[in-house]
């Protein structure tokens, strides 16, 4: 169930006039500010992500494999 409060105000997002094929740009395009992204100095998350990917790869190509999977990727 949703409340009566609107999450996005009218005109915030792009709207398409389906009859004319026109797109009306929302205010997000001019009001959106990208936050600064700074380097945190470590790369541990990338290493951990690679290790997790390898674990999943091993599982799904060995004990976690299903009979039809190779047929679906080739």
Q: Would you write up a description of this structure?
A:
This protein is mainly alpha-helical. It has helices at residues 28-31, 44-61, 69-73; strands at 15-17, 22-24. The protein starts with 14 loop residues before the first strand and ends with a helix. 0% of the residues are buried.
Helix-strand blueprint:
Elements: E1 15-17, E2 22-24, H1 28-31, H2 44-61, H3 69-73
Antiparallel strand pairs: 1-2
Structure summary:
The protein contains three helices and two strands. The protein has helices at about 30, 45-60, 70-74, and strands spanning about 15, 20-25.
DSSP strand content: 5-15%
- DSSP helix fraction: 25-40%
Q: Counting H and I runs of at least 4 residues, what is the number of helices? A: 3
Rounded to the nearest angstrom, the distance between the terminal CA atoms is: 43 Å
> How many beta strands in the DSSP annotation?
2
Q: What is the 3D shape?
A: flat
Query: Which consecutive residue ranges, at least 5 long each, have pLDDT under 50?
Result: none
Structural class: mainly alpha
Order of helix and strand elements from N to C terminus: EEHHH
The main sheet comes to: 2 strands, antiparallel
Radius of gyration: 23 Å
Query: How confident is the prediction overall: mean pLDDT?
Result: 84
Give me the side-by-side strand order of the main sheet.
1-2
């Amino acid at each position: 169930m949703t409340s009566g409060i609107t999450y996005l105000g009218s005109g915030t997002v792009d709207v398409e006039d389906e009859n004319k094929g026109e797109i009306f740009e929302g205010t997000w395009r001019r009001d959106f500010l990208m936050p600064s992204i700074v380097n945190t100095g470590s790369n541990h998350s990338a290493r951990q992500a690679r290790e997790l990917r390898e674990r999943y790869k091993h599982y799904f190509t060995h004990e976690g494999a299903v009979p039809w999977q190779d047929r679906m990727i080739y």
